[in-house]
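INPUT
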Amino acid sequence: MTWDMLTVIGTIAFSISGAIVAMEEDLDIFGVLFLGFITAFGGGAIRNILIGVPVSELWSQGLFFQVSFFSILLFVLFPNILMKHWHSWGSFFDAIGLASFAMQGALFAVEMGHPLSAVIVAAVLTGSGGGLIRDVLANRKPMVLHSEVYALWALVGGLFIGMGWVTGGFGLFLLFVLLVSGRVCSYRFQWKLPHRTIPSM
Amino acid sequence: MTWDMLTVIGTIAFSISGAIVAMEEDLDIFGVLFLGFITAFGGGAIRNILIGVPVSELWSQGLFFQVSFFSILLFVLFPNILMKHWHSWGSFFDAIGLASFAMQGALFAVEMGHPLSAVIVAAVLTGSGGGLIRDVLANRKPMVLHSEVYALWALVGGLFIGMGWVTGGFGLFLLFVLLVSGRVCSYRFQWKLPHRTIPSM
Amino acid sequence: MTWDMLTVIGTIAFSISGAIVAMEEDLDIFGVLFLGFITAFGGGAIRNILIGVPVSELWSQGLFFQVSFFSILLFVLFPNILMKHWHSWGSFFDAIGLASFAMQGALFAVEMGHPLSAVIVAAVLTGSGGGLIRDVLANRKPMVLHSEVYALWALVGGLFIGMGWVTGGFGLFLLFVLLVSGRVCSYRFQWKLPHRTIPSM
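OUTPUT
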């Protein structure tokens, strides 16, 4: 129930982030819907494939597909009105999506009896894989790999769950708060991971 | 039998469209073959993975692999001669491929008992997924997401089949004619879907 | 045992090639690790999916994950020292990775009873798929499709194994030597496959 609420918020945030990139790149309305969808569901789909979740699982998310569809539609119809609110709320919603998607991805992998490596990959892909595909399709350098700390928070979630450091409901709640706060601080205070550039060969 | 004929036409068209992009991007002969193949078979492969078709299905298309290989080879050997005919026939063949691939993808998903969402995704990926991968590998913005109406016709095919609006052979024939005509009109008369651009943040 | 040794060398080479591209593109330390990993394991993962290897296989490579992780870490910490050695050894190690990954991919596909087409695709993807994904994520035109002969050597490996021209240990050894030498000559003497460029439409 709580997961479902968080997933709705994350789905809206991811869908709209895809739609925004698509509109920035001057894609048509089909491209906007396509990129919104793939940002919301692409990470989970790849995770499913890599950890062996049956495909039927993917297609049982009818409700979330509709949430995604109508959020994108609303956003495309009233971009100016919604964009204003998006600036204040969008990144926060996105942080909720990042945290809850990553944690659910990790729990999925644990449930299937996979080792730590798989749990971490599942968390990272579910949390940040959609954004990665979004940027690749828009022909951009993936934001999650060079901007303010993003995918690392998904990795942290995967690590805590994969190591069994959190299990019960309260532990998961604390982890969720940690990840959301971490991400919020990252874009608020421009936390960046160290870079070490080398010249192109 | 009829499907097989249409699939041959579509395979030729998609392979050559991949080869053309590869030659425009100055890839080597291996890259040309690679991009041709992936344009023809990439969409179907992703669809298979997402709706759970056994992998053996993918590898039973030996005949179509050969059709693809020899079309690309011929095109690379005689680009100037063939390019002339391609300008008149290429887009029409491509429309046939789009329509027949999308419809077969949708029928596949229906056969496997998937819900409407899966049928539509299967249609869109089978019809336009190859072109999407082609452009991503060539480091271009995906044509199917911002040019004249393309992937939408695949979606329409998926919708009609997924909703059960067409079933028998004649209904499928009419749908096929509709999709091909729709796509031909789109590039003939430059039908574009509405865009709503926003400035980059 | 021998395969394991070669896989270690290939894993190191592929991981570091991913890390180098990531550092050239100014990704952060997470992006460097991510791109290193995906270069080393991405090709094999896609091959597994396309030829139907169970996902558990992917997650049983714990040792190689660690090899990858520590090579990347070392490289990021001491890029200047290691870069010097890398210029002399890197491409040679990479050739070993290309040959051994391609051959193992092909043998996998043969073992599963797939036809020649699948064996060749498995060889090409395992040998050069990681480099392909690396370049796509870094928003570059895939090196393996337009630079000195690369993926073709993987294809040759797949062809020899798929046709049953080599089977026993000695035949495999000779093929390995052929592929490595071929790749070394390719970058040493700038062997390129023919290009045939056409102007963009």
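end of record. The mean pLDDT of chain B is 92.
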